[in-house]
Automatic annotation (TrEMBL), chain A:
Main location: membrane
GO terms (BP aspect): phosphate ion transport
Ranges annotated as spanning the membrane: 32-56, 76-104, 116-135, 171-190, 243-261, 285-306
UniProt keyword list: Cell membrane, Membrane, Phosphate transport, Transmembrane, Transmembrane helix, Transport
UniProt GO MF annotations: phosphate transmembrane transporter activity
Record-annotated ABC transmembrane type-1 domain positions: 80-306
Organism: freshwater metagenome
Protein name per UniProt: Unannotated protein
GO cellular component terms, A-Z: plasma membrane
Homology family: Belongs to the binding-protein-dependent transport system permease family. CysTW subfamily.
CDD domains: TM_PBP2
From TrEMBL, chain B:
Keywords: Cell membrane, Membrane, Phosphate transport, Transmembrane, Transmembrane helix, Transport
Subcellular location per the Swiss-Prot or TrEMBL entry: Cell membrane
Gene Ontology CC, one term: plasma membrane
TM region positions: 55-76, 88-111, 137-167, 179-206, 212-229, 261-282, 334-355
MF GO annotations: phosphate transmembrane transporter activity
One record GO biological process: phosphate ion transmembrane transport
Species, as recorded: freshwater metagenome
Name of the protein: Unannotated protein
Membrane topology: Multi-pass membrane protein
Family recorded in the similarity comment: Belongs to the binding-protein-dependent transport system permease family. CysTW subfamily.
Length: 317, 365
């Protein structure tokens, strides 16, 4: 945001000067609009302040009150690991797919069909996360089970596929479900950037005899690079904070491992809160809220970086 | 970026105008793609039938054959560059097909497994005193309705007014730039963090472990306001300045210009955005699980006690476990509720599109 060049002295609007019309309606309406903006700022400040206030008691928690961990850091960091691992799996799957889908909508499909295809992708975003979770828990885990078996048999020498394969409800399945949920966001943002590529560059490339792919590689991608990066970052933000899909799909035991297909899976911060909240009491609630604060800070950083990259890309273009 | 365009194009030094040069390069016939696809999946069908593979195996093997066959054929006749272009075209369209797979699969599964649960009782009864078969989701539908409506009543006016401030009054000053940035940040807030915010707020007000439906509405508002601001802002920016200037030139006060000229012109887009925002939060689970809690009976009072909602009911029924004889009924109820929830959300989406095109600005884009 800071890169947007603002006029040092915006031209003063004579109609905006107080008293020039002598009508009370104007100042009241202006006050209402400004007030609405203030409420948003207060709400966001409230989120940060209340989370910090309620996290403070958790700093001293240990043993029983910290779910058996020595202190709050030892408790939260495996969850943070799981959160990042699941989100990274999701992005490894979703990012290339999203770029392809965005290209279909922006450059490959005939214009009339492209609108319809865009709607279909939006519908993918409209399905509630709890429904994806239910689907992952009841249906998808059965489908991926034979695939995991195959991975274990043929690629078992890799640490990721060590197994043993006893369930389909693994962190890899959670990553797949998260990928489905991150895909519409990344697609929508990439599509915007692809459509903004100057038509002249594209037509020039085609006029020189480039095939469609060469045109995209030489004219569209260089222009869209920062936009794609920021889209992926924002998708990462979504995947990091997703709760229900992971809580329903994952059979979690809260350990730290890169083994993606065993029944012993790392849990994520958000899913852990949802699953443990019902029977939490006393300081345990504060411990969970402290986890939420960590999640808030991480997603804040990721989103900030994404927006910053997007703004910088716009300023350069 | 233009320098990357200087890739040497194929110039053959032996080409001489005196000899015969074909004016067109050889091309594959226009049915080549269809033909290659038919042959690929046909060939894959043989072992699939003989070894009775699952359908997924047949599709995958056919796809691999197709990806190999068409570019190879193209490479032999049209040359390498064309072949790469065809390969990429196949891959790009394949990503789209792959992305559609979960949408189709989810909707199919939800309809298949949820349709059996629907009955009159399902829509008119609650879960009060019901453990196994029977009972319904009336209480959860009402809860979702109440909490979502209150969230909309809070969010839509605040969101629209904030957008009015950004577009009509802010003029890129410091406050409006900060606000734009904060709205961006708010868009990225994980839903469970919004729930924790409401929880922390009401813990301070009501004591430990509060369960109150209005808290759910507040948590949903935190998620909903940025969506409304963003979509309204986009729409207000589309309103041509000539309209504002015309009204102001006639001596209309600025606030009347905004309420009578600017907002009505942008109405279609604003309603679409608000409806999509409602659809988005109607399916939110995590914040409601934390603050609105879960209840087997019906509660109409948002200021007192827990209130059941559809997403929380789905989560609860799917994870409850318990006596083995009850589990199948719980799972069926979860699917039935998922079907109802998906229908509500899809209807809202459809409504948003219809309203959007009905009110769409007459100014054109």
């Amino acid at each position: 945001m800071s890169t947007i060049q603002a006029d040092p002295a915006p031209p003063s609007d004579p109609l905006q000067e107080e008293g020039s019309t002598g009508r009370a309606g104007d100042s009241i309406f202006r006050g209402l609009a400004t007030g609405a903006g203030m409420i948003i700022m207060l709400a966001l400040a409230g989120v940060a302040i209340f989370l910090v206030l309620q996290s403070i008691p958790a700093l001293g928690a240990s043993g029983e009150q910290a779910y058996g961990a020595d202190n709050i850091v030892v408790y939260i960091w495996p969850l943070l690991f799981g959160t990042v691992l699941a989100a990274v799996i999701a992005l490894v799957i979703a990012a290339p797919l999203s770029i392809g889908v965005a290209l279909v909508i922006s450059h490959y499909a005939p214009r009339r069909i492209a609108r319809l295809l865009g709607y279909l992708i939006d519908l993918l975003a409209a399905v509630p996360s709890v429904v994806y979770g239910l689907w992952g828990r009841e249906t998808l885990q059965g489908w991926v089970f034979p695939v995991y078996d195959w991975l274990h048999d043929n690629l078992g020498f890799l640490p990721f596929f060590e197994g043993p394969v006893t369930t389909g409800r693994t962190i890899l399945t959670a990553g797949v479900v998260l990928a489905v949920m991150a895909l519409p966001i990344i697609t929508a943002l990439c599509r915007e950037v692809f459509l903004q590529t100057p038509m002249m560059h594209q037509e020039a490339a085609l006029a020189l005899g480039a095939t469609r792919w060469e045109m995209i590689r030489m004219a569209v991608f260089p222009y869209a690079r920062s936009g794609i990066t920021s889209a992926v970052m924002l998708g990462l933000g979504r995947a990091l904070g997703e709760t229900m899909a992971v809580a329903l799909v994952l059979s979690a035991s809260g350990i730290v491992t890169f083994n993606l297909i065993s029944s012993q899976n790392p849990s994520t911060i958000a899913a852990n809160i949802a699953l443990n909240y019902a029977n939490a009491s006393g300081t345990k609630v504060n411990v969970l809220i402290a986890g939420g604060l960590v999640l808030f800070l991480v997603t804040f950083a990721v989103n900030f970086l994404g927006r910053y990259l997007a703004a910088r890309g716009r300023a350069k273009a | 970026m233009t320098d990357t365009l200087h890739e040497p194009f194929h110039t053959d030094p032996s080409t001489d105008l005196s000899t015969h040069v074909p004016l067109t390069k050889p091309q594959l016939p226009s049915i080549a793609t269809t033909l290659a696809a038919a042959v690929s999946w046909g060939l894959a069908g043989l072992p699939a039938l003989l070894l009775s593979w699952p359908i997924a195996g047949w599709v995958v093997v056919g796809w691999i054959l197709f990806v190999l066959a068409l570019p190879t054929w193209s490479g032999l006749i049209e040359g390498g560059r064309k072949a790469v272009d065809r390969l990429v075209t196949i891959l790009v369209w394949s990503t789209f097909a792959l992305a559609m797979l979960p949408l189709v699969a989810v909707i199919y599964t939800v309809v298949e497994r949820g349709a059996g649960a629907l009955s009159v009782e399902f829509f008119t009864a609650s879960q009060q005193g019901v453990l196994g078969e029977g009972g319904g989701i009336y209480h959860a539908i009402m809860g979702t309705l109440i909490i979502t409506v209150i969230a909309s009543v809070i969010s839509i006016p605040i969101g629209i007014m904030a957008a009015v401030y950004l577009v009509e009054y802010g003029k890129n000053n410091r406050l409006s730039r900060t606000l734009t940035f904060l709205v961006d940040v708010m868009t990225g807030i994980p839903s469970i963090v919004a729930g924790l915010f409401a929880l922390a707020l009401f813990t301070l007000l009501l004591g430990p472990l509060p369960r109150i439906a209005i808290g759910g509405s507040i948590a949903l508002s935190v998620l909903m306001i940025p969506i409304v601001v963003r979509s309204t802002e986009e729409m207000l920016k589309l309103v041509p300045d000539e309209l504002r200037e015309g009204a102001l030139a006639l001596g209309v006060p600025k606030w009347r210009t905004i309420t009578k000229v600017v907002l009505p012109t942008a109405l279609g887009g604003i309603v679409t955005g608000a409806t999509l925002a409602v659809a988005r939060v109607a399916g939110e689970t995590a914040p409601l699980l934390l603050i609105a809690g879960t209840l087997r009976g019906t509660n109409f009072n948002p200021f007192d006690g827990a209130m059941q909602t559809l997403p929380v009911l789905i989560f609860g029924e799917a994870t409850r476990g318990g006596l083995a004889e009850y589990v199948p009924f719980q799972i069926e109820r979860a699917w039935g509720a998922a079907l109802v929830l998906i229908m509500i959300v899809m209807l809202l989406n459809l409504l948003a599109r219809v309203v959007g095109s009905f009110f769409s600005p007459k100014t054109g884009r």
